[in-house]
Design a protein that fits this description.
By secondary structure, the protein is of the alpha/beta class. The chain is built from eight helices and eight strands, in the order αβαβααβαβαββαβαβ. The strands form two sheets. Strands 1, 2, 3, 6, 7 and 8 form a six-stranded parallel β-sheet that branches. The chain is globular. The protein starts with 7 loop residues before the first helix and ends in a 7-residue tail after the last strand.
């Protein structure tokens, strides 16, 4: 559970970040996808979202946007929104604040969004403050599906969605090769289950 739904103490480390978004009188969830876009997975994700008429937020790696700009353009064209996931999928705690911000800004040259999600959720002081000063809004999550894990079965990934999702949950999937097997099974079934539970799928709002 410490991975699938971050505990309060971890959330307190990043108090100005968004973990969950509740809307009065509405049962909402926010689907997000990290690490793309890539041709092997992202177009399939888009086709599933289109099938169910759902919009999502894609936290993109800048180098993937550079290589597969046509897929990034497709994400935007189909009414989804994007966020910054650094240029090189850079982990904050392994790099200096200056280098981390520079890599994020490099991605920002290709990704027109103030939304930012740190890879693996890892940052060190003063990285969050530097990001905020540079106009970024940090978006974390309420549910990690763990679709990327080779130790998880597709059925377990779906079970994580069912067990941990609640009103306002920001849910993380990955449009990546590591996640592909689990994602192809769990994503459509998760969407169907969430719809059956009465959830409305929303986009993470702009904070400019």
């Amino acid at each position: 559970m410490l991975i699938e739904q971050p505990p309060i103490l971890y959330r307190l480390l990043f108090p100005n970040s968004i973990w969950r978004l509740r809307v009065p009188d509405k049962k909402t969830v926010y689907l997000t996808f990290d690490d793309g876009p890539i041709p092997e997975v992202t177009p399939w994700v888009l086709s599933i979202l289109n099938k169910y008429n759902i919009k999502a937020t894609f936290f993109c790696v800048g180098d993937n946007v550079r290589k597969y700009g046509h897929i990034y353009d497709q994400i935007i064209k189909e009414g989804h929104i994007t966020g910054n996931h650094t240029f090189h999928h850079m982990q904050g705690w392994k790099n200096s604040p200056k280098k981390f911000l520079s890599d994020t800004n490099d991605a920002g040259k290709l990704i027109n969004s103030q939304l930012f999600r740190p890879p693996h959720g890892h940052m060190i002081f003063p990285q969050p403050g530097l990001l905020k000063k540079n106009g970024y809004k940090i978006i974390m999550w309420d549910v990690v599906t763990r679709d990327y894990s080779r130790f998880m079965t597709p059925e377990q990934v779906l079970a994580n969605v069912k067990r941990y999702t609640r009103d306002g949950s920001v849910i993380v999937f990955h449009d990546s090769l590591k996640a592909e097997k689990n994602l192809r099974y769990a994503l459509p079934l998760s969407i169907e289950w969430l719809l059956e539970q009465g959830y409305s799928f929303e986009l993470i709002p702009s904070y400019r």
